[in-house]
Amino acid sequence: MDGLLLTPGQYASLWIGVQITVQLLLWSFALGVVLSLVFGLMRLSENRFARGFALCYVELFRGISSIVLLFWFAFALPILLDIGQPSRVVMAVLALGANMGGYGAEIVRGAILSVPKGQHEATTALNLSGFHRVRHVILPQALPVILPPFGNLTIEILKGTALVSLVGLRDLAFSAEILRTARTQMEVPIGVPELFINVLVIYFVLAQIISFTFRLFERLVNARYRQRTGRRAVDVSGGAAAPATAPGDATGGT
Hints:
- By secondary structure, the protein is mostly helical.
- It has helices at residues 8-42, 48-63, 66-81, 88-114, 117-125, 130-160, 172-181, 192-229.
- α1 (8-42) packs across α4 and α2 crosses α4.
- Mean pLDDT is 82; it is low at 232-254.
């Protein structure tokens, strides 16, 4: 077991990369959520232009390889716009966030479509504005459907952060590569298998933290939903959505 452990200095080097990786993940997730909501709602807009624009965005950023998208934002876009080299952290966040937004928009669209039609009709009958319809009625009921696939998507973005090492950002993967290339010059030499076993474990732990966080939110959302409506919105174990709310619910049918 001791043979698999690194020295404190080597773990300190990896920790620098972990901080960059987590920073990229958090900012990319925040941008991805915003883009997912905006373009997911635009995909359901009554405006043909808005629907077409959202569809182009979704198909473009879902269809482009993440590594090509990263190089495009980091190198090609500044040249095309004739601007100085921007922060590569910002460019990496834009690339990862845009990629997440392309997939997330379809998740949001599907979740909203899963809300019973009567709920949409009820918001119209109550003469709610579009914003209040989405904010107070539609999204709260779509949220239990959104969370599980968004958890998986966030883990995919975590794994995608390893690509930023190719544009010179010192994330976890880049830090591991630094240790690998300098291993023969260290006071305590490190084997390549031992090094990448530690990196694998770190990525696994980060993924489990994300998974646990989303499962916790799923339970909280379902518990709150049951408290409001007296039924289960989504089975956390993977079951389908329950039937519609009973008549007389404040957010239910007419």
